[in-house]
Amino acid sequence: MASGARSANVLLSGLSAFLVDLPSPASISYMWNFGSLLAMCLGIQILTGLFLALHYSAHVDLAFYSLIHLSRDVNYGWLLHFFHANGASLFFICLYFHVGRGLYYGSFKLFHVWASGVMILLLVMLTAFLGYVLPWGQMSFWGATVITNLLSAVPYWGVSLVEWVWGGFSVGNPTLVRFFSFHFLFPFLVVAMVVVHLLFLHETGSSMPLGLDSDVLSVEFHPYFTLKDILGIFIVLWGVIFVVLIYPNILGDCENFIMANPLVTPEHIQPEWYFLFAYAILRSIPNKLGGVVALVLSILILFVCIIFKGGFMNKSWSICWRVLFWNLVVVFLLLTWIGARPVEDPYVFIGQVLTFVYFFLFFIMWTVNRFGV
């Protein structure tokens, strides 16, 4: 009993230091709310995903109809389904805002925090791709076929790697079973990485909009920032509930409401909206291997931020940095738009120009930051 009480006291004191007594910069604004919003999104996705898994059948003949059964016959199954589907979009909205805020305010100076955050982004993107295949609609099937085929660009082992992922010589039942298994397991890896991310964050402290050391002008996390986080969560939750109840398919693709048919190719194959910028970069490179490398670098380039060494205390104070950052945001949005366009002129040429500008802006940002312009 005594050892149990001591363990409980240690746990409570640890949670208190983690969530209540944590010194936090007094100047951080609502732009720092996206961390708690991401925790909320992860909780929604895991909780709804566990209930969806109870009714999902990972078989090519049953997967599509199992979701129809879930939405029509299971009590509130439609609510779980739409919360999970729209929760993925909310997850990426918060992720992109979180990364953007880190770039704008120079949070990448926290080496381990930024690196673990980029790893979380990669894991979430992989998990989302696996989940997009599970409904086994037309876009799910053909999206899986196109994206997994990219692995064949890997020298020497490419074909073997594709066949291993497929579990055969084409996208089929073994592929669906493997994707479901990994989609179920990866969120728990994300949780583990989030814990690592938070441990690094609590070791270094949050960055400050003022660009000062995080120990300067610090206050306890509770109640100042818990109230901010709770307010942000309630506002976003109301927005999600509105979308789920009124416009549940606003971001869905109509092709995915048709069961997968290997004999019928959709007129225009495209991924979910949160992958469109990377898809536009992929198809802007004529060479298959070059396209795959560009696709991977479009995310891994965020690791370049780790070697940034600024010559000024706060990035947002520099007019040059602000111009570069907002140009990067515009290019990101334009690439997202191009990714949804057909593969034809002038969209192909515009995508190639925007791809060059996307990578060039990161190089200019590194140069500007290196010399403290």
CATH topology of the largest domain: Cytochrome Bc1 Complex, Chain C
C-alpha termini separation: 62 Å
Provide the β-strand percentage band. under 5%
Low-confidence stretches: none
Biggest sheet strand line-up: 1-2
Order of helices and strands: HEHHHHHHHEHHHHH
Structural category is mainly alpha
Largest sheet data: 2 strands, antiparallel
* Mean pLDDT rating: 85
Helix run count: 13
Number of domains: 2
CATH superfamily of the largest domain: Cytochrome Bc1 Complex, Chain C
| Fraction of helical residues | 55-70%
The CATH class label of the largest domain is: Mainly Alpha
CATH architecture annotation name of the largest domain: Up-down Bundle
C-alpha Rg (nearest Å)? 22 Å
Principal-axis shape: globular
Subcellular location: Mitochondrion inner membrane
Protein name: Cytochrome b
Cofactor: heme b; heme
Main location: mitochondrion
